[in-house]
Amino acid sequence: MKLIIHGGFFSESSTSLETKIAKQEALKRILLNSYDFLESHSALETVIYAVEQLEDDLLFNAGIGSQIQSDGKIRMSASVMDGSSKKFSGVINIENVKNPIRVAERLMSYDDRVLGGEGAIKFARDNDFAEFNPEIPQRRLEFEEKLKSLGTGTVGCVALDKTGKIAAATSTGGKGFEMPGRISDSATTAGNYANEFCGISCTGVGEDIVSGAVATKIGIRMSDGFEIGAAVEKTFKELAEFDGFAGAIVLDAKGNFYHQDSHPSMVFASYDGEKFEVFR
Ligand code: GLY
Questions:
Q1: pLDDT (tens digit, 9 = 90+) per residue, 191-247?
Q2: Pocket of ligand 1, candidates 209, 211, 214, 263: which has the most ligand atoms within 8 Å of its Cβ, to mutate?
Q3: What is the CA radius of gyration of the chain?
Q4: How many domains does the chain have?
Q5: Is 154 a catalytic residue?
Q6: CATH of the domain at 119
Q7: Which domain holds residue 194?
Q8: Ligand 1, closest atom to CA 206?
């Protein structure tokens, strides 16, 4: 059993030591809690469980504490992919729900598995997801002062369970200040992908992640026989050709972890039952 999570990017210059330590502690708590859960649940159930906790933590840009768009509204995106069945489901630009990842989970059993905007909101209400405002005062202050809150990013998780199955989940509040209608990478296979060889969750600038088809390329390279490091490095080399801004966490079926970022530093933590690693 292996588990890796991320909470976006942070910048040394704009993040206080206090916030950095708080993020390290939050990731540790969520990772270890989710690893316990993985003991008796599938990879798919666990990635959703972990991302729900990341969405609930105000420190991260997903769910509660999401970024505000240029028209003053919060629109969130989240997706989940089961590596064994290859099923992908997600919500794009959903509003006023507490946990977008839980709406994405609910869509797994439908034929129409990725919903956007009004359709996603209606689906959530029809399925008893209560109205919930994910805004926090800090984000409103940043919005009013026209400040991008650097270092927030996206959240995600990849899990390998006892049966060797892999799943990936990703959730985001977006870039902040984006045009209404803008589509994030987080509910596409460029930002969240899993197959029987590996799982990948990305953070960074959605447009760059889609242009670089980051998670999809890593997944396909591994299914074509690349080792984890070679698959990630080649994909990030191609991203660098257009100065793409992205980070990725990757976990393969052999239990190897890998993380890479184009513009350090990514906020991540991993655990294999013995060794715990967290970003520094
Ligand atoms: N990676 C999150 C976004 O650009 O929306």
A1: 999 999 999 999 999 999 999 999 999 999 999 999 999 999 999 999 999 999 999
A2: 209
A3: 17
A4: 1
A5: yes
A6: 3.60.20.30
A7: 2-278
A8: 4
